Amino acid sequence: MIKLINKIILLIFLGVLISEVKIGYLNADKILTELDEVRQVQIQLEKEQRKIESDYMNLELELDSLLRSYEQQKMLMSEERRTKLEKTLTDKQAELQRFQMEKVGPQGEIYKIHDQLMAPVYAKIDEAIQKVGKQEGYDYIFNVVSGGIVYALPQNDLTDLVVKELEKISDINE
């Protein structure tokens, strides 16, 4: 995959040497740090994160309290009561882990909130990039942070040609 990307970049730069192609770049991180909307999103996310941390700590304290109570009284408890309390402790630990995954795990609530709040910001940035690219006559605009193309003239899109060529190669090899 990386070799393919490198070949595509090489083809683009060879195209620059052969014809007059206008290439620009931008720093997406700098754009994000300078937008007020991003600061507002960060403030909202920090509020949500503090709320989640508070809820997590409350669950943790509850579990810790149950555990201490169990440890102090387990010698005096009946087998039935001890088993019941151990199950309660196990359930609380599972609840704490589930809470953590649901709130801050890879598919967690905090990430969903982030994506939801940032979607209009990303759309606004993309709109600005498209506008600048067209107005200034750029063929390509790269993001220096990721190295990816963030704007390209549609007529320079080689995807369909490459797919057709791959189909031809596949037909020959069969």
Describe the structure.
It is a single chain. The protein is mainly alpha-helical. The protein has one domain. The chain contains six helices and three strands. Strands 1-2-3 form a three-stranded mixed β-sheet, with helices on one face. A hairpin with a 5-residue loop joins strand 2 (140-143) and strand 3 (149-152).
Shape: elongated
- Strand arrangement within the widest β-sheet reads 1-2-3
Q: CA-to-CA gap between the ends?
A: 23 Å
Q: Tell me about the biggest sheet?
A: 3 strands, mixed
Enumerate how many helices there are, as a single number. 6
Q: Could you list the spans in which at least 5 consecutive residues all have pLDDT below 50? A: none
The tally of strands reads 3
- Percent range of helical residues: over 70%
Strand content: 5-15%
Tell me the count of domains: 1
Which class of secondary structure composition applies to the elements? Answer: mainly alpha
What is the C-alpha radius of gyration, as a whole number of Å?
28 Å
- The ordered H/E elements are HEHHHHEEH
In a nutshell, what does this entry contain?
This protein has one domain.
Record the SSE blueprint.
Elements: H1 2-18, E1 23-26, H2 28-34, H3 36-73, H4 79-104, H5 109-136, E2 140-143, E3 149-152, H6 159-173
Parallel strand pairs: 1-2
Antiparallel strand pairs: 2-3
